[in-house]
Amino acid sequence: MEPPVTTMVGRGSEQERLTALVTAAGGQALILRGEAGVGKSTLLDHLAEQAARGGHEVMRAAGVEAESGLPYSGLHQFLYPLLHHMEGLDDGHRAAFDAVFGGRDGSAPSVMSLGIAVLDLLSLAASKQPLLLILDDGQWLDGPSAEVLGFVGRRLTGSSVQLVIALRTEVRSRFDTAAFAELAVAPLSHEASEQLLDLRHPELAPSVRRLVLDQARGNPLALLDLPPQVSDATFRLHGIPLPRRLQHVYGARIEHLDDAVRRELLRGALDGVGAGTGFTRGTRYRMRDVEEAATCDLLEVDPVSGDFVFRHPLIRSTVVQMATPNQRRAAHAVLAQVHHEDVERRATHLAAATVNPDEQVAAALEEAAESVTRRGGSVAAVAWLTRAAELSENHEGRSRRLGDAAFVAGHAGLLDQAQRLVLSDTVPGKNVPPASVLTSAFVTLTEDGDVRSAHRQLVAAIGTLRDSGPREPGELLTRLVNLLFAVSSYAGDRALWERSREVVHSLGDRALPLSLIYGDVWSDLVLHGAGVRERVQRAFGEVADLEPWEVMMLFGAAFYVDASSPYRPLLERGAEREVETGAVATGMNMLHLIMLDQLTAGDWDEAERTGQRSLDLATSRGYALFACHSRACLALLAAMRGRLERARELQAAADSWARPRGLGFLTQITDAAGTAAALSEGDYEAAYLHAIGITPPGSFEPYAHQAPRMLLDLVEAALHTGRTAQARRHALAARDAGLPDLSPRLALITYGALAMTAPDEKEAAEMYARAESHPAGASFPFELARIHLAHGIRARHTQGPRPARQFLTPAAETFERLGAAPWAERARTELRAAGVPVRASSSQLGTLTWQERRIAELAAGGLTNKEIGERMHLSPRTVGSHLYRVFPKLDITSRAALRDALGKTEGQDA
């Protein structure tokens, strides 16, 4: 005989919605939202019964407030009964589960990787019968589990899996932005409240009945539990908020229990009993000899495990709140012993059980922080490190742990908390500890862009450690050195760089090889870059031993020597994990570097999306420096694509923030964006002036990171403005400085610059051949296309139209693919001149700008370029460049066709 379906009052519409959920074809996710005690759990029970009757397999879990900082504890509850299906998964998905559930060491996978693994596991489990996942008290679910369930819930369409999550209205949760369908569970109507009271408490006197109805205000749990207590003189109803009223109801029962029973209840409550059947690397506390509490309707028996569990989450909360601090500490101490093999869970209880400084407990908390960081719990790591500092037995240990906590907080986007931790370690009248300087300088740099103040702090702290610290390399010293190099890089100032290198040189063998790589690449690649590419590639051989921020810095070094692309998938996985698990500063920097690598490789649409995501993260978290950096690079990309209005808007925003602060690294990028915009527009005079703002022709400004990367831009701008001698001198300076030996990209553009400026055809042909046949040429499509274009133009003038086509055709195709509109127009115009009938791309045809139209009108009237320039205060060369772009927009090839073409556009406009 089938079990009866639970009877409810006043929930007809909600029951219909839930019944439709389990009978509908295809998977979906739904949130039940309502206040505590409103009946969400009862609706979930009803749903589970309906689903079971309909042939579903039902999996249930519940969030526990005490475990909300333990990564993946909630996900384990859900998946524990399904893990036997893992044999059907591939090795990668099994490895993802091993990493987060403690089967093996390793970094936590990204939300996407783990989410896909979970989807595959659910698909396997649901292949024989539909699956229903029910989560109660979802507001207490740990962050990483919530992120994964959010990912999974948005991808259930077409599956045989349903997900239902109950949330309290009054508590914020990570599911608030999950974009799931919602079902609001409101308090019962007055009529339904009366009906429920009459069913469950028909004997109530009219006065008591009115009081209960008035105080319960439609809350079903209050309607059920208040009546037996109303006559108790110790119970005060009036003016007490509902959750507290219910806690008083339970409190009256708990107070009458034997002390031993109350201790058992407290241990169970603090360990989350009743929130699920499984837990990572262990089980929950099993309460014993608590039949008395069961008799009082505080506990019930789990039908699966046979263990006692709390009848309602509010009972757990009441048990904890009624205990004294000493009672809670004693319970935590017992639980720490119970979970002695679980590093993180033991740490949770030790932190709460210990009052006086205890070095062993502090060390255990450090170990747990390291473990939870690897598994994606930066916020929990900060809390444990802070608690470890409080329990340290000496000032040195306290300072070190506070410094570590502040360091992790800074990388987790918790800048305010990081600053508070720094201040808590500062004693008036004494020097700031080096560990605090690390965070203080990081915040100074990222929030304010104050490179000089940060530089002074770091130099002093490194000097202190050098003179009084250990003689071997240490983590704190290494972090200080790396940050010093980052500060110097953003400053882009020769004096600061030379001072930084001098300080680090004084450390001798205490400066680690990785740090020395950063110093060489980020300072001046022309002066210090010999052999760095090989050192970077060797360092990536040991990447498994590096922390996420170290991987990020190494990738940044690799980018500047064109060795980063093979490692981009590694950084993409790291970026997703860091952003989703809380290490936002590291994650947004990873995204920024990914964007630069995508830009270089020609994945421009992806680069724009990645750069915008990095900018949004930096802006939302208050990292002004990183936001400025993203704007500058997005401006450069927009300029290369010819989106000049966006480019100049972003360039102006970045430059106005960076230039007053002396951030040479960023102002060089904004100057590079200005150069690229001018080149796209054909304003070569402006391009030349922007370029020489970074480095003069014939040399490479020391410690100007953008100087060698601007080689092709400066040479082209110089050639188009008649500065042939300066262009040649600069190309020769690149060759003599050994740029081709530093990186493939620098080799490509050096050969291209030498070819463009070669005085005789033999040298030009040789250099063009070296550039166009370079093994890495395809990895830098924009630069290679520019070299093809220049080669085609030269070939058309010296050899005729036919030989030029082999160079102009791939140039036009590449520019079109990249979306570099002005460059594509230029290449198509040259192809027409070479006798190839090419129509302008429909995506590039558009309305002439006001300046272009005015120049075209004057030219159609018979004025020369010089006369037009005098009228419009432009150089004749700039006028010619504008006409060069006007012709393909109007689909013409000669000046004589201008008048008719302009007449057609006027007719279309009309």
Automatic annotation (TrEMBL):
Residues 841-906 form the HTH luxR-type domain. Keywords: ATP-binding, Nucleotide-binding. GO terms for cellular component: cytoplasm. It comes from the Bacteria. PANTHER family: TESTICULAR SOLUBLE ADENYLYL CYCLASE, TRANSCRIPTIONAL ACTIVATOR DOMAIN. GO terms for molecular function: adenylate cyclase activity; ATP binding; DNA binding. One of its GO terms (biological process) is regulation of DNA-templated transcription. This is HTH luxR-type domain-containing protein. CDD domains: LuxR_C_like.
